[in-house]
Specification:
Blueprint lengths: L6 H4 L5 H22 L9 H10 L1 E3 H8 L3 H13 L3 E5 L7 E5 L1 H28 L3 H14 L2 H15 L2 E4 L5 H15 L4 H8 L1 H4 L6 E7 L2 E10 L4 E9 L8 H15 L4 E6 L4 H9 L2 E4 L13 E5 L4 H6 L2
Parallel strand pairs: 7-8
Antiparallel strand pairs: 1-3, 2-3, 4-5, 5-6, 6-7, 8-10, 9-10
Helix pairs in contact: 4-5, 9-10
Length: 330
């Protein structure tokens, strides 16, 4: 294959999976060709399961999938192909009939025994190939698989996409031009889960007099050129500050907008030398509790403001030792 036409290699890191698959298919194709020319009715893709059965005698499909790092359907497909070739058969598990137990037929055992010398030759050729390329190729493959076992590609992509979204969020301090968003976002959220109580209405309808002029703050999140979320910092007596009225448009949730709004409010409370930073939430709002816990808040048995609302609330406060931890998670 000429370099000019080799698009996959030109794509570099972007085509890593395609590149590895191409190498694997090339090796498998050549080995299967050898099997065929030597009149062995065997396919290269059957090797890993066959070798496992040689060592284990019999094994459940689910266990084989786990030990080989393959999917359940992939093991079933290979097993069905080997069964058709007369090399493998199966039976139901005596304890759990839903489980399928695989084992080699007499023909399968004979075939694998005959293939043993050829496998040694394949091993030698693989070793020579590795020496031509890199003495540490197998070690690097081990590292690659271990890295993916620790954090798979799906998780890596989600984290990267979230970081990109997070950087696109702009936090604005309170301004009169945003006031209507504060009221609208929070009332919509409250109506969805609870009801707008008198205390809610007082704060939402008069944010300047009830929050700003009392030493609190309000923040707005802009994303894609529009205001999509808000949060408030309420100042109480004894330098206690409450994170409240965090609301994000439904279509813009799961982008960590709420987290960035909360961090903005916490940073402001720290700036104002808060002795305690707290928040109130409903025990049924598990996503909210999870986010605040992630940011360093812990539930307290003492609820200073439980009488402010008719709805049930739990009191969480930021552990002072987690101030720095919270900032590093931004």
């Amino acid at each position: 294959m000429t370099k000019q036409k080799d698009i996959i290699s030109q794509l570099g890191e972007l085509a890593l999976a395609s590149r590895l698959k191409r190498i694997s298919e090339s090796l498998m194709r050549d080995v299967s060709r050898i099997y065929s020319e030597l009149d062995y009715h065997f396919e290269a893709r059957w090797f890993s399961l066959s070798y496992l059965l040689l060592k284990r005698k019999e094994i459940a499909v689910t266990v084989a999938a786990e030990e080989l790092g393959l999917t359940h359907p992939a093991i079933n497909q290979i097993a069905n192909q080997m069964t058709k070739a007369g090399l493998l058969t199966s039976k139901k598990d005596k304890i759990d009939e839903r489980k399928r137990i695989l084992y080699l037929t007499p023909k399968g055992k004979r075939t694998l025994k005959q293939l043993s010398p050829l496998w040694e030759t394949i091993k030698t050729c693989n070793a020579e190939l590795i020496q031509e390329v890199s003495k540490n190729l197998i070690g690097n493959l081990d590292k690659l698989e271990n890295a993916l076992a620790q954090k798979n590609m799906y998780t890596r992509l989600i984290e990267s996409l979230n970081q990109e979204s997070y950087k696109s969020i702009t936090i604005h301090p309170y301004h009169k031009k945003y006031a209507a968003h504060f009221t609208k976002l929070n009332k919509a959220w409250l109506k969805k889960y609870f009801k707008v109580e008198d205390y809610d209405k007082l704060i939402l309808d008069y944010p300047e007099s009830q929050i700003i002029k009392k030493g609190g703050a309000i923040f707005f999140a802009e994303y894609d050129g529009k205001i999509v979320g808000c949060s408030a910092l309420l100042k109480h007596r004894d330098a206690i500050y409450e994170i409240a009225k965090v609301a994000v448009l439904e279509n813009y949730q799961n982008k960590h907008i709420g987290r960035k709004l909360v961090i903005a409010a916490v940073d402001e409370a720290i700036k104002q030398k808060a002795k305690e930073i707290c928040m109130l939430t409903n025990p049924e709002l598990t996503a909210s509790i999870k986010m605040f816990t992630y940011l360093g808040f812990v539930q307290s048995n003492k609820n200073r403001y439980e009488k402010m609302y008719q709805r049930k609330t739990i009191y969480m406060k930021l552990n002072k030792g987690n101030y720095r931890k919270l900032k590093t998670k931004e």
